[in-house]
Model the fold of this input.
Amino acid sequence: MELAEKAIAGNDDAFLSLMLIHKDALYRTALAYLKNEGDALESVQEVTFRAYEKIHSLKKPEYAKTWLVRIMMNYCRDVLQKQKRLIVDEETVLQHGFSEDYTYLEVEEAMAKLTEEQRELIHMKYLQDVKIKEIAEMSSTPEGTVKTRLYKALKSLRSFFDDKEEKGEIRRV
Done:
C-alpha cells in the first residue's frame, strides 16, 4: 500500500516496483482473455503505459492490484472487439496443440456461454483472488448483488457441465 501511495504521488521507482509486483497477475489476466502469449505480453506493456498515465486517478492505494487488473480487462476487451474473434478451425487447433486438452476447451466453451459481466466476475474472484468487497467497490454495486451475480454465474457453469455429463460428452476427472 505504501508503494502505491508513493506511485500516486509521482514516484517513478515506486510505480515500477508496483508494476513488477503485479506483472504476473496482469499477464495471466491478458492470457486468459487473449489466448496468445505474444498478445498478452504486448498488453502488459500497453497497460503499464496506461496505468502510468493515470496512476494519479487511483483513489484508494489498497486497491492498486484490482485497479490494474480492471485496466487490463478493459484493454483486452477492446483488443478482442477489434479482432472480432476469429473462428478457430481444426487446423489452427492442431497447430497450437490444444487438441489433447479437452478440459481446457470444455471450460472455455462453458465460459463462452456466460455473459461478459459473469465472465469478469468469475475471472476476478477465482483467477485473480479479488475479494467480493473489492469487486463491489470497483463496480459501485452492493456486495449482496455481487454475491448473487457470482452465484448465478457459478450455477450456469454447473448446469453446463451437468448437461454435458448427462449426455456423456464429458467425464469428471
